[in-house]
Amino acid sequence: MQPAKLDIKQQPANNGTLVARLTGKLSLETVNGFLQETRAYSADKLVLDMSGVSYLDSAGVGALVQLFVHRRNQTKKMAVAALTTQGAAVLQVAGLTKLLPVFSTVEEASV
Predict the structure, then answer these.
(1) Cα dist. 29→6, 24, 33 in Å?
(2) How many CB atoms lie within 10 A of CB 86?
(3) Which CATH superfamily is domain 6-109 in?
(4) Is the dihedral of CA 80, 82, 87, 93 positive or negative?
(5) What three-state secondary structure class fits 111?
(6) 42 φ, ψ to 5°?
(7) Could you give the count of Cα atoms lying within 13 Å of 74 in the half-sphere of its Cβ?
(8) Are strands 102-103 and 6-12 parallel, antiparallel or unpaired?
(9) pLDDT band at 5, cuts 50/70/90?
(10) What are the DSSP E strand ranges found in 13-76?
(11) What is residue 1's predicted lDDT score, i.e. its pLDDT?
(12) Domain ranges of the chain
């Protein structure tokens, strides 16, 4: 069985926004690396492009919340964009669509 992988590619956008494109699984096996890398981002606004996330579990949801709270405590913003059907369902069940700013597209989230 292959170990779970999550690749993160940074794509600077306009007006102090950084887009991070996630590809792979945001799950128990990958959350530590995800948090280590994304907590270091200094951009005023971070948009997580989730269109390449093939699997999101409760540990991944917890990591999104941790990152959101970490950035809010630093008066920085974060948004989640382009969720897959599975990712959107997981956030919906967890009741986090009211807490996390969620957008259909990266373009909407980057405004």
Answers:
(1) 9, 11, 9
(2) 13
(3) STAS domain (3.30.750.24)
(4) positive
(5) coil
(6) -105, 0
(7) 16
(8) unpaired
(9) very high
(10) 17-26, 45-56
(11) 62
(12) 6-109
Mean pLDDT value across residues 44-73 = 97
Which of 75, 2, 17 has its CA nearest to residue 48? 17
13: DSSP letter: -
Q: What does the pLDDT look like over 16-41, one tens digit per residue?
A: 899 999 999 999 999 999 999 999 99
Q: Which two tokens stand for residue 19?
A: 């887009």
Q: Are strands 77-81 and 45-56 parallel, antiparallel or unpaired?
A: parallel
- Alpha carbon of residue 23 to chain centroid: 11
Answer whether residue 58 shows pLDDT above 90: yes
Task: Give, as one character, the DSSP assignment of residue 2.
Answer: P
